Amino acid sequence: MRPIGALAVLFLVHAVAASAAERFAPLDPDKMTPEQKKVADDIVSGPRKSLSGPFNAWLRSPQLADRLQRVGEYLRFHSSVPARLNEFAILITARQWTAQYEWYAHYPLAIKAGLDPRIATELGAGKRPENMADDEAIVYDLCLALHRGQTISDKIFDAAVAKLGEQGVVDLIAVNGYYDLVAMTLNAANVQVPPGVRPPLAPATPDTPDADPGRGLQSK
Length: 220
Description:
The chain has nine helices and no strands. The chain is mainly α. The protein has helices spanning 3-17, 34-45, 55-58, 62-78, 83-97, 100-112, 117-124, 134-149, 154-189. It folds into two domains: 3-78; 83-189, AhpD-like (Up-down Bundle), CATH 1.20.1290.10.
């Protein structure tokens, strides 16, 4: 199937599945500008095979969409951070933003990559997961420190470099930032999980252990 044919099929699927509450209507391939169509074809013909998630919104600014999708392709498919930890970091970001679609899309990828479902369940409930592996605890602490404290301590930084290397730490910081933007886009655009699927995340509340931005973060 040629890319534009695949794009037309994906448009039909997206148009059927899209909720009326979503703020950006699916873009009809026949009505896209040449620049939008080129970026959309690049995304569909790449490893994602889909315009789901933030891309329908981002295509309103096609040059931005092109640059972001290239960054996202590296961070999702080619990061130096092992997939289990990379997807864990994405779920942490989804939980921080209560980004329902982001969690829905990446939960199965995290489990497939080897993350214990129990850890994901506890994270989704707003808890610090118990019995994490050492590398998971390091990733959790670094991500939570960035999201909640906007910085990281020397202890967390040194532990992360020792486990992941300097490139790994930079890639981990970047995946948090990129999926922050994804979550912002999904929430602002009101992107919904598919019809008939229950939103996986409850709203964060002050009663959950990680809802207090002043709570101390320590590596275990």
